[in-house]
Amino acid sequence: MVNQPKFKGILIVISSPSGAGKTSLANSIVEENENISFSTSVTTRPPRDGEKNGREYHFVEKDQFNLMIKNKRFIEYAEVFGNYYGTLKDQIENLLNDGKDIIFDVDWQGGTKIRNSYLSPLVVSVFILPPSIKTLHERLLNRNKDDDRTVKLRMKEARSEISHWSEYQYIMINDNFDKVKKNIVKIIEIEKMRRNKRILLPDFISKLNNEFEEFISNS
Questions:
Q1: Tens of pLDDT along 25-35?
Q2: Residue 170 — φ and ψ, nearest 5°?
Q3: What is the rounded distance in angstroms from the CA atom of residue 26 to the CA atom of residue 38?
């Protein structure tokens, strides 16, 4: 049995092919729930228009990223479309110690590494599917973030990404954004209660038993 890390929060890993909605869902959930924080990854890709260093990502050069790998700064890291992405260990542990729940917007590679890390007992995993491949393609085109070549690469990668759906605890089809968002928040609440049963209730039951002993001895 894996020992439960002594942190107060949980990790919510959300994965999907590009364009299926994981980033929009994660951002909206964080905006509406003050106890849920967003995992800000480190990346070697250049910022897009409107992105700010330290908000969407921590933007670094490849040499700096490699040094962070050498110094074991990451819980996980992966190469995606020629760029590197990684999750900072100290950032995550500090948030968990503060009692924050953390959402990860990662591909299946990142999701696998987080689920297999020392934090695995804290992980709740959700995979988001598009309602159709046509819709997925339209979303990639309409968001105007990538050139035609990158869109084609993302569509090619989407098939491989979707093949990992069964590795996740919860699977949702993103045909109604608000419904999917509410369901993810419900999952977080349920998993928190389940974790509290395993982690917090034993101490509470022990306290009740001590009170029973005291009550009996004084009767």
A1: 999 999 999 99
A2: -125, 135
A3: 7
Encode pLDDT of 36-73 as tens digits: 998 888 999 999 888 888 888 999 999 999 999 999 99
For the chain, list the domains and their CATH numbers.
11-218 (3.40.50.300)
152: tokens are 């084609």
Nearest-angstrom CA–CA distance, 110 and 94: 20
- Residue 111 in contact with residue 119, Cβ under 8 Å? no
Instruction: Give the integer Cα–Cα distance in Å for 161 and 113.
Output: 15
Structural element, H or E, at residue 43 = strand 42-43
With 0-12 CB in 10 A as exposed, 13-18 as middle and 19+ as buried, what is 10?
A: buried
Nearest alpha carbon to residue 36 among 189, 199, 196? 189
Query: Distance between CA atoms of 40 and 42, rounded to whole angstroms?
Result: 7
Tokens of 82: 């020629």
Checking DSSP bridges between strand 42-43 and strand 83-88, what pairing results, if any?
Answer: antiparallel
Asked if 86 and 41 touch (Cβ cutoff 8 Å), the reply is: yes
How far are the Cα atoms of 31, 93, 115, 204, 219 from residue 124, in angstroms, in the given order?
Answer: 19, 16, 9, 24, 46
Output the pTM of the full model: 0.78
